[in-house]
Amino acid sequence: MPAPQPETPPGVTPLATTAPAADPAPSAPLGAHHHDLVQAAGMPVGAGEIKVTYDPRLTNEDLAPLRKQTWSSYNIFAFWMSDVHSVGGYVTAGSLFALGIASWQVLVALVVGILIVQVFCNLVAKPSQRTSVPYPVINRAVFGVLGANIPAIIRGLIAVAWYGVQTFLAAESLNIVFLKFVPGAEALLAPTFVGLNALGWISYAILWCAQAALFWNGMETIRRFIDWAGPAVYVVMIVLAIYLASEAGWSNISLNLSTGEPMSFAASIPVMFSAIALVVSYFSGPMLNFGDFSRYGRSFAAVKKGNLLGLPINFLFFSLLTVVCASATVPVFGELLTDPIRTVEAIDTPFAILLGGLTFVTATVGINIVANFISPAFDFSNVSPQRISWRTGGMIAAVGSVLLTPWNWYSNDDAIHYTLGVLGALIGPLFGILIAGYYVIGKQRVHVDDMFTMSPTGRYFYTRGYNRNAVAAVVGSGLVAVGTAVLPKLVADLGLVDVTWIASYSWFIGCGLGFAVFTWLERRNPQMPVLDADDPHVSDGTRDERAVTSGTVPA
């Protein structure tokens, strides 16, 4: 296990506490000696390049601009495979076919929803890919060097909660394997501790440790894992679909899983829009902090190609496999099963249970690592870079996920609605503000070095480190977004008017309001600087891209 990185490696010049005012002269990287020390301290070669002008209160190897960006289109494609190929992705895709609308309408909703996700992911990917910094750092240009902790903490808390849930779901898959192959495992189902039986604790602990070990080995190990995990799940899904279809008879496979009375075309339109919103909401978390991964892309073109392969193409093919499997469960088992864990259980053959159980464990670990482990690692590290490294931030999330005891509240609809509903509703405003700040107000220009200075003359110091326009925008639009997510259910539970359909669009409402309010405030009282595109320290996203070779992205 690599040793933690010391705060200041021996022999390296300590970081300056403040950066020079206005336009500092270019500062040389810390050099080959520092590079060797970083390797000795257990950091990967592709870690960030720290300049002597960078303030240690804002800087560590994980947050600084990368020395080199190496991820190809396939790596981004594999990232999305890991994000899509999970129990949650399976259930979400299958659930759209049970909304009562026609199959062609479900297909349209899937296509439109995933194309919206692709467009938004490309938007949020560009600033981080061009500057080679993670999501919380690029927010410093919009929220201020200290204000960026607001979106970082919100996103980090959401990830912690869902990290626990996904680990619990993976443990449920592992339980099936134990019950089938370990004699006496059933005896462990009765005793409970803090709401979870002994077998559940064993499975949860195994997966918790496995994910922590994978994460601790660094981003390159994670990249290799997701490069393998996504295709592996595909192989098993295809085998499962072929087996179930052959057992059911190909003539009995139907793409129409609708239940209940057929809807009229007029009545089906709102349901289609809800299905589109469901697809976008499902991906809203990883979509917000996609910059944590796009920063590694060797070019923005490679990231966009990976998004194309991983989102519309991959998602639709996976959805088709899901429908084939779910449709076949009706003639084979006599009921519609949209949960892959229950489907594997119903097959009830040792090989199928072993292969299916381990596959869905792998799939859930994949999405957990990319969506719920890496994000809080960067987010919490951003709060106090010298005290919290990337690894420490991730372990804070892992420990916090256990303390939340997700198995106790995951089955409680009200708990999910009123806790994660509030946090999740804030994802839209945070997204809208970042996009408005980078594209509309900032004109795609970012002074990379100034995101790492606490000097009052720094471009992103604003008012004591906070951009008051961004703070006001997230509060104003956030309150509306939370209201649309939480209040409709409360009103319906009180027996008043039923407007719960509004909650499906809380992300869009929050995103639109965040974008509009922040743009209006900046037009009225500008805070973000107008940067010169010819400044060699400025990353200009409108110009031809070049990969990072050292330190700041070249203009």
Verbal overview:
The chain has about 550 residues and is mostly helical. It has a single domain (about 70-540), classed as Orthogonal Bundle (Hydantoin permease), CATH 1.10.4160. It is about 60% helix and about 0% strand. It contains 21 helices and four strands. It has helices at about 30-40, 75-85, 85-95, 105-130, 135-140, 140-145, 150-180, 200-215, 220-250, 265-280, 285-290, 290-295, 300-335, 340-345, 350-385, 390-405, 405-410, 415-425, 425-440, 470-495, 505-525; strands spanning about 190-195, 195, 445, 540. The strands form two sheets. The protein has a two-stranded antiparallel sheet with strand order 1-2. A hairpin with a 2-residue loop joins strand 1 (about 190-195) and strand 2. The longest helix is centred in the middle third of the chain and has 34 residues, at about 300-335. The chain is globular.
From the 3D structure, determine the CATH topology: Hydantoin permease
Query: What is the correct CATH architecture?
Result: Orthogonal Bundle
H and E string: HHHHHHHEEHHHHHHHHHHHHEHHE
CATH superfamily: Hydantoin permease
Terminal-residue CA separation? 38 Å
- Major beta-sheet overview: 2 strands, antiparallel
Helix fraction by DSSP (H/I, runs of at least 4): 55-70%
Sequence stretches where pLDDT stays below 50 over 5 or more residues = 1-46, 547-555
Strand content: under 5%
The structural domain count equals 1
Structural class: mainly alpha
Mean pLDDT: 83
**Shape verdict:** globular
Radius of gyration equals 24 Å
**Spatial order of strands in the largest sheet:** 1-2
The CATH class designation is Mainly Alpha
Number of helices: 21
Number of E strands: 4
